[in-house]
Amino acid sequence: MALLKPFSKLPCLNTANILLVESEEQFQQSLADTLVEETAFTVNVRLAKSLPLPMENEESRPRIDLVVFIINLTSELSFQSAEVSLKNLDPGYFLGKVCFMVTNARNASVPTERLDAVRKLAASLHCPMLFAEDQTPDGVTNATERLLTILKVAAGFVPMATALYLSNLTRRTAPPDIEQPSFD
Amino acid sequence: DRENTIYITLISPGSGDRQNNGSSAVTSRSINIRVNLNFLLCVSNCEYMNMFKNQIHTVMSAFPPVVEAGTPVHGNDEVERHLVLVEKVAYSKGLPPEAISVMLEFAMSLRMGTVLCARVLRCLIPATVVPQEAVVRAVVWLGVGKIPMSTQVLFIKWVLTMFDMIDGKDQLRAIYGFIFSFVTEENLCPFICHLLYLLTRKESGKSFSHLRYGPFIQRFPQFYSYSLFLVFSSLLQALLTGRQPFLMHLLSLYKVLCPELVTLSIPSRMRWVRNHNSTWKSTLIGVQKRNGSQAASSIGLAFTIKDKASSRKRKHTHLQLPALSSVVNKQPQSEPSSSRKLVPLVQLHSFAQLLENMHHIELPAQMGSLLGSSLALQYLDFVQDESALLRLNFWLGYALYEEFLFCGDGGGFQNSDEALQFLNKLLSTENFLQGGFTSSEAFLYKFLTVWDGSLLRPQILALLSNIPVVPSSQIGRLLFEPLMQLFFTSSVFFKCGLVECLNSMLLKWLTWHSVYALEDDLDISLKSYTSINMTLSGFKDSVMDLVHFVGQLASVGLQLEGCHSLLLSFTLDFYETVCDMFLKYGLPLVVMPPPGVFYPTLFATDPISVDRLAYIMYRYKVNLASAKSQEKLTEAFHISSQTFHEFNHYVVVMVNSLWNSRMFKPDMDLKLSEELLLKSSVPQHWTSFDLIHHPAFMSYAIDFHQKVTFLHQKSYDADILTSIKLTPQSGPKERFGDVTTFPSFFRLATCLLQKHP
């Protein structure tokens, strides 16, 4: 059992490393393509189907600054796979270096229970949960921008801000019960 | 509950069992409701039932059934072949109205058993319209009771999905009571309630008036429609065990129509239920797309207010605003007792006509069509018809939920600009009515939790800025939490957009306040399109929460974005609104900006920001001074001394750093140790943020110096900058010569020279 650790390796100059974990490997690729277009600093994107990562590349693998779990809400498997993979992360990652990216949240075929389950998971791990529109180019660009915003902080490029600081601002406290807001 | 009992007892048929029936109506609800309801139906519908039974016979003889009742289904290749053909046509072009009639009749009569019934229902895609008679007949078949429950649900779902395409609603309205009777079926109830909601209108009772009255009604003929509502609403209230949203929606409509009958308090915001069947809808969309404008124009019919719009392709049944059509305004078959003549809205073409017919206007069945017509909006705005607003809200909530939250595969609408047009139309309506709709507000709260921050951003943010005041207890959960997460994970442009949106939200809240505060002193009630009553202190709490929230967003946002000047500018826009809340909008509340906004602005590198900060501080000063003088006079409100303290502190800091060259002195917020300052080897470090050396104004100082040396024919001497002496006594004129060439300087200097409280 090889835990992925956030501080076991030294960082490289002007380089940020992001790991995208998605069991279905659909959104991963397009996201990676746009992520590497960033010019202000070097972005290394690593793709994985699930965690733990294989042992063979252990040496050459750089320090991972941000782990993103992509969950497709239309598939139960996608959520379950992310849940299992989470166990292979060092607790240090949960101080702001993990985020969830959820797709297809507005799809009619998604049961509300699954969305709530993902919300609960993110809330219990104190991680931000981003929603993405993976079908349109604009949606992909925007998802990339938002990941880069978090990555910049997680990799230490923003003075006076740390990943823990940002995650304190962006995490959800509890899954909201928006369904029936009664003011009376 | 007692009242309900009495009402129900009143309409019980026999005098002998009246007592029993009435008292047990509450205890064993559903049975007795059934009993009473059956009686009611006998009264109201027997004539209609007979009529339609006759009609069914005539229709059956006119369209002789293709198959005999009881023909075997299994292994019947001929039926299979025909059905496949029908399905093929239905899915490609849609079925003509006559075919819909025949097929619906075939399915609902269960002539070939229940298996085929569901299959036929699934392929009933209309090419143009659905004949009303066919639907009415099918509803009658529903009462026979042989159809399995799942198929009954399927049928009502079909009616709901096709509701816009039914070519008239008057006959359906006539069997309102009959449809109502299905409310007691647990599985059907949500769908029946939705259908009833769509059918309920102010005039609902009228169409019954020509029927022969029952014994009770005969005694009170003038209350016929009223008594119907009485029965319906008391039955609904009796049925209500929890807070089933479908029942609540219908009850809320009844409450608007007959407020005295519904004793329950209805929450102003309710959950939406999904009743439509998305497979039909997507097929329908596909069929309409293929048929093109032809279908649209045949639905829109002759009378449309917008000429061009009706020929637009219908891609999304819900996103497109239905045209104001005259179909629904066909006079009911017989309505002799209607003394008042109603004028359909479509027949009015000018404002003068609207004024003439103001008191007898008939609203269209499709409330969504009101959004597209300016006359209709003027009417709505003037009359403040609550039932119309409620129905419009219902339609809108439904459309928004269906199209943006429960999309088909792949979201569907994203690549079309229909969604854009729809939201723009909604926005212009909200701007016209100067208020948001409760349904769009409820939709936004839900949408924000799944929003990616870029989809339709301008429209969503504009809609968001229209929402009415949110009570302080809810504002954090509904608004701040989702917004905060979006704000801190998005780009700087989103951050700017959100701050701008919150600024315009605050402006609208304050404007509402100033309008309503004028009306009834300080106790305001914000009616506009919400039914929230809010006290002044509640309003102040909400505003304070909003200002503090933006303060928090701005301070941390500025820090994360390295004091981005664009974000700073939007933040200052916001504080320009905040600083004038007392004088401009009469709200006795002054909230100072947090240090996270004040200091980055004071030490900003662009002169405009510093200048605007000086202006904001000046307006704070004017507001505080006037608040203090009024406070002495009336003692109606109190500005906390903490606020004065904060303001004075900020002014002292500003004056000390810009004017007195006393930076880094012990009484300032910025404390740096003496050794560190010495180590930095900056000569005269205490002057480094005064008006001449401030990074924002340095270029002005150099420019001024160059002009002076040019005039005096001297060579450029950098030392002259340090030789210009600043004293608190000297005015700006002595120090900078003709200061009007530096407008920002001038305003800043005059601001600072004002005495502060």
Automatic annotation (TrEMBL), chain A:
The keyword Nucleus applies. One of its GO terms (cellular component) is nucleus. The keyword Nucleus applies. It is found in: Chromosome, Centromere; Nucleus. It comes from the Eukaryota. Keywords: Centromere, Chromosome, Nucleus. InterPro entries: Centromere_Cenp-M, P-loop_NTPase. This is Centromere protein M.
TrEMBL record, chain B:
It is found in: Chromosome, Centromere; Nucleus. The keyword Transmembrane does not apply. Belongs to the CENP-I/CTF3 family. PANTHER family: CENTROMERE PROTEIN I. It comes from the Eukaryota. It comes from Sparus aurata. InterPro entries: CENP-I. One of its GO terms (biological process) is mitotic sister chromatid segregation. The keyword Nucleus applies. Keywords: Centromere, Chromosome, Nucleus. This is Centromere protein I. The gene is CENPI. Pfam families: CENP-I. Transmembrane segments: none annotated. GO terms for cellular component: inner kinetochore; nucleus.
